[in-house]
């Protein structure tokens, strides 16, 4: 009988064989020798994000970086040895023989199913095992020899390896699909913000909805935006069950509120906070270069490090939120907040801001457009998070 055999918590019904514990160095060849082609596609440590290759570049052998050493073969697994907690690893399944990876990756050529091994190295316990063997603090790293000594459990039945590998490969493909959709929508939104707001010195945008031709009118922030002064005492008990949203709970440049928001009572807040309502805008005044803003869909309290904003005198609230995300507003807030210590934009500086806006009907069309894009981005983010959580749960239960 084999020693150190065990079975996972959940598995495909048709498999019942035990799993065997083996060192990585026994189930894969590490950094196999190869001769580089005269010209190749180079993959460095920035080229892989998650399990997806997002870029590569053409290099000549005689002028290529010295780290370009790992010639890929279909089925090879490339493991990021520098800062492995980032989990930027890649399974090479492309039908090409001219891709070369950086020595920042350990190259594994498996004797077992490649997809199974690739799935296994993404599991939390494996990553912890790697980190325990890393050296360095700012840039923790593991060498290939130490990596090869790590033991994992492997199904004795090759067919089970393949079923598990395919399952996680399909999940990775879905995660990559939604990530690319998110990235594409963010890029589209950025381009549209640049073109649907007038450039500095102009009073008409580059593109606009049909039927609108009038020049935009210059307006002053102080005349059209109310900065709330409704500060409340979170200790009084009246707000215990409301969420507390600080700039740290908001994703930069997207307006997305993270899922890490806690209630006022859970936060045990003691200093004064601003009260906001459904439809208000939160804008982070500290470090405006970080782009912390959100269009709120619920009532709550926010940090004194943020402003609560509402439009007035004919300015549409949703248009105001789009304006805050424009490059014109961003450059202004960053320029006036530069000072010694921590950058901050104060009320007087905001109230001095001038901008161009169209008639109310066009404002509403613009504001609705950008909020609809935000909703699509949020939808894909939620699907992405759900798939990521499903994958994490399955990794925990299908491996031992």
Automatic annotation (TrEMBL):
One MF term in GO for this entry? endonuclease activity
- Its name, as the record gives it, is Restriction endonuclease subunit S
Cited Gene3D superfamilies: DNA methylase specificity domains
Q: Which residues form the Type I restriction modification DNA specificity domain?
A: 72-183, 248-388
Keywords of this entry: DNA-binding, Endonuclease, Hydrolase, Nuclease, Restriction system
Organism listed in the record:
Sphaerochaeta associata
**Which InterPro entries does the UniProt record give?**
Restrct_endonuc_typeI_TRD, Restrct_endonuc_typeI_TRD_sf, Type-I_RS_S_subunit
Pfam families xrefs: Methylase_S
Domain of life of the organism encoding this protein: Bacteria
- Tell me the SUPFAM superfamilies matching this sequence: DNA methylase specificity domain (SSF116734)
- Identify its protein family: Belongs to the type-I restriction system S methylase family.
N-terminal signal peptide:
none
């Amino acid at each position: 009988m084999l020693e150190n055999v065990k079975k996972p918590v959940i598995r495909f019904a048709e498999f019942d064989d035990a799993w065997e514990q083996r060192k990585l160095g026994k189930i894969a060849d590490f950094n196999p020798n190869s001769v580089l082609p005269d010209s190749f596609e180079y993959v460095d440590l920035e080229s892989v994000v998650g399990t997806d290759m997002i870029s590569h570049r053409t290099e000549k052998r005689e002028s290529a970086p010295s780290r370009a050493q790992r010639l890929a073969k279909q089925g090879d697994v490339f493991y990021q040895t520098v800062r492995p907690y980032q989990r930027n690893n890649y399974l090479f399944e492309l039908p090409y023989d001219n891709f070369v990876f950086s020595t920042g990756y350990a190259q594994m050529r498996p004797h077992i199913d490649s997809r199974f091994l690739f799935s296994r190295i993404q599991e939390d316990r494996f990553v912890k095992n790697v980190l325990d063997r890393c050296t360095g603090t700012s840039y923790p790293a593991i060498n290939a020899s130490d990596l090869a000594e790590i033991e994992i459990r492997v199904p004795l039945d090759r067919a089970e390896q393949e079923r598990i590998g395919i399952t996680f490969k399909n999940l990775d493909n879905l995660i990559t699909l939604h990530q690319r959709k998110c990235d594409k929508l963010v890029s589209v939104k950025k381009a549209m913000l640049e073109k649907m707001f007038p450039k500095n010195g102009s009073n008409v945008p580059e593109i606009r909805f049909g039927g609108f031709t009038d020049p935009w009118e210059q307006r002053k922030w102080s005349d059209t935006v109310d900065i709330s002064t409704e500060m409340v005492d979170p200790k009084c008990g009246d707000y215990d069950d409301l969420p507390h949203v600080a700039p740290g709970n908001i994703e930069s440049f997207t307006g997305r509120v993270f899922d890490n928001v806690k209630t006022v009572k859970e936060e045990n807040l003691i200093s004064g906070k601003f009260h906001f309502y459904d439809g208000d805008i939160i804008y982070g005044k500290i470090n405006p270069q970080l782009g912390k803003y959100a269009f709120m869909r619920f009532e709550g309290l926010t940090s004194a490090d943020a402003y609560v904003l509402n439009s007035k005198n004919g300015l549409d609230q949703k248009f105001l939120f789009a304006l805050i995300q424009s490059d014109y507003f961003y450059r202004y807030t960053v320029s006036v907040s530069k000072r010694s210590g921590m950058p901050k934009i104060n009320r007087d500086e905001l109230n001095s801001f001038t901008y161009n806006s169209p008639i109310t009907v066009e404002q509403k069309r613009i504001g609705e457009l950008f909020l609809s894009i935000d909703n699509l981005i949020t939808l894909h983010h939620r699907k992405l998070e759900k798939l990521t959580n499903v994958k994490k749960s399955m990794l925990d239960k299908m491996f031992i």
